[in-house]
Amino acid sequence: MSNPGPAFQTSPNRIIGTLFGAVYLLVGLLGFFWVEGVPFAGPGDGRSNLLIGLFEVNPLHNAVHLLVGAALLLAGVSTAYAAKRTNTTIGAVYLLLGIVGFFLAAPDNGQSPINFLSLNTADHILHLGSAVILLASGLGADRDVHATAATV
């Protein structure tokens, strides 16, 4: 019989992974309603492709949100160990993206082809905020959970 580690209610990593996963899946799906006339990869005009009036999106950006959301959600409903590892990994990637994003969007006010995810300042702040929460959970919570707990 499999032991998934701490119960969902007692594992911060499973709770955060599931919540963030659901939110990123929803954002990824909703983003497709704001990409008319926007290239698959690259910046839009900065006005018509703003999700809820703040976050620039394009189809590639939305696809990434769907993949991140699915990974977080699947790990969150899986085991505490899987959620911990996934939260830490995605948190680290989002920290890097949040920092590098400022440089990707800087040339030509975000209209440069190197801004292939169509990022803007609101995206960077959201990515950095997500990184802090995911890393705090992944590195700080469920310290007693190990790979063996997921397979026993």
Report on this model:
The protein is mainly alpha-helical and 152 residues long. Strands 1-2 form a two-stranded antiparallel ribbon. Helix content is 59%, strand content 3%. The model has no long low-confidence stretch (mean pLDDT 85). The protein is elongated and about 50 Å long.
Short description:
The protein is mostly helical and 152 residues long. It is built from five helices and two strands.
Features:
two-stranded antiparallel ribbon; about 150 residues; mainly alpha
Topology:
Layout: H1 12-31, E1 50-51, E2 55-56, H2 59-77, H3 80-105, H4 121-140, H5 147-151
Antiparallel strand pairs: 1-2
Low-confidence stretches: none
Sheet having the most strands = 2 strands, antiparallel
Strand order of the largest sheet: 1-2
Hey, roughly how much beta strand do the residues contain? Answer: under 5%
Give the CA-CA distance, first to last residue. Answer: 7 Å
Q: Which percent range fits the helix content?
A: 55-70%
- Secondary structure class reads mainly alpha
Q: Please, what is the average pLDDT?
A: 85
- Counting DSSP E segments of at least 2 residues, the number of strands comes to 2
Q: Write down the secondary-structure element order.
A: HEEHHHH
Please tell me how large the radius of gyration is: 17 Å
Instruction: Name the shape in a single word.
Output: elongated
Helix segment tally: 5
